[in-house]
Specification:
Length: 140
């Protein structure tokens, strides 16, 4: 008997494929390096409040990859992934899987909140709507 897969399964399979592929990892690492270099160059060019350029210690920390704030002290956690990047990823995954970006976003949400539910969606044991409802019930 032939079995068709639903939209949620298509999205889950595409997410697993793309996130697990070496090309995706390489692409994300290259994008992160490029973004870090751009931030580093921008920070080097920023004068401090007293009009001087950044201190040598600050520049050394930047070159070593140590996160620092504009004042020269250690930085907090790295910034979250930009909204445009998330949108681009959802659109790419939607094109690959043949589903809407909204379906991809819902499946990514399930994956982040409950990897077990994500696997159930991927296997076709539960729909995206049911998995989201189950996650909401467990969190409240």
């Amino acid at each position: 008997m032939r079995r068709h897969i639903d939209q949620g399964q298509k999205a889950a399979i595409a997410i697993d494929f793309v996130h697990g592929s070496e090309a995706w990892i390489t692409e994300r690492e290259a994008a992160a390096v490029k973004a870090n270099e751009a931030r580093s160059e921008a920070a080097k060019a920023q004068p401090r409040a007293d009009g001087k350029l950044a201190s040598p210690i600050f520049l050394t920390q930047l070159r070593a990859g140590i996160p620092v704030e504009a004042g020269g002290g250690p930085a907090g956690p790295p910034p979250a992934v930009r909204s445009e990047d998330r949108h681009e990823e959802r659109t790419k995954l939607a094109d690959i899987s043949g589903v809407s970006p909204r379906t991809v976003a819902r499946v990514l949400s399930i994956q982040a909140k409950s990897p077990e539910q994500f696997e159930r969606v991927k296997r076709g044991e539960v729909t995206v709507s049911k998995a989201l409802a189950d996650n909401r019930l467990r969190t409240h």
